[in-house]
């Protein structure tokens, strides 16, 4: 039996969002206790709030939007979690990637830098000083990994 793991942040009213973006709002509309036939609400959320995928359209006018990418493209059978604690503005390196023998078998790489800890405690650091994949490591992933 397959096991799916949710890796996103919960969505809730007032959740942290990137500075300048609209706040997440949940507006109750219908309520059973007020005589309506159902409970219903309107959720307003900017597409780049919380956990999200930047589809090609985000940076290319003629790129695919997230609505054009099949959900099956987001289901992975051999994900690999790479623990790589990094400080603000740190880089994931080729040396770090080469520590993982199973890298060539993976169809998804998930990097746990520990930076997520700043989301609730120091949001400015979270959005402005995040770790990243070094250009060399990005090229390594693009050219060396079959999946």
Radius of gyration: 19 Å
Main beta sheet, described? 2 strands, antiparallel
DSSP strand (E) fraction? 15-25%
The succession of helices and strands, N to C, reads: EEEEHEHHEH
Unreliable residue runs: none
Summed over residues and divided by their number, the pLDDT gives a mean of 91
Number of discrete domains:
2
Helix/strand/pairing category: alpha/beta
- What is the terminal separation in angstroms? 23 Å
* Helix content estimate: 10-25%
Q: Largest sheet, order of strands side by side?
A: 1-2
Number of strands: 6
User: How would the global form be characterised?
Assistant: globular
Determine the number of helices (DSSP H or I, runs of at least 4 residues): 4
Protein traits:
KFase_sf; arylformamidase activity; 2 domains; two-stranded antiparallel ribbon; 6 strands; 17% strand
Short description:
With 147 residues, the protein is an alpha/beta fold. It has helices at residues 94-97, 118-121, 123-128, 135-144; strands at residues 25-30, 40-44, 79-83, 91-92, 108-112, 132-133.
């Amino acid at each position: 039996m397959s096991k799916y793991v949710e890796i996103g942040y919960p969505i809730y009213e007032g959740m942290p969002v990137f500075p300048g973006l609209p706040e997440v709002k949940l507006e109750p509309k219908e309520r059973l206790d007020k005589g309506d036939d159902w409970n219903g609400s309107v959720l307003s959320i900017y597409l780049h709030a919380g956990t999200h995928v930047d589809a090609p359209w985000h940076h290319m006018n003629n790129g695919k939007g997230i609505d054009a990418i099949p959900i099956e493209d987001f289901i992975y059978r051999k994900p690999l979690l790479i623990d790589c604690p990094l400080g603000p503005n740190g880089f994931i390196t080729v040396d770090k990637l080469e520590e993982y023998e199973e890298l060539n078998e993976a169809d998804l790489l998930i990097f746990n830098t520990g930076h997520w800890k700043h989301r609730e405690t120091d949001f400015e650091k979270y959005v402005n000083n995040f770790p990243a994949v070094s250009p060399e490591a990005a090229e390594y992933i693009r050219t060396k990994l079959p999946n």
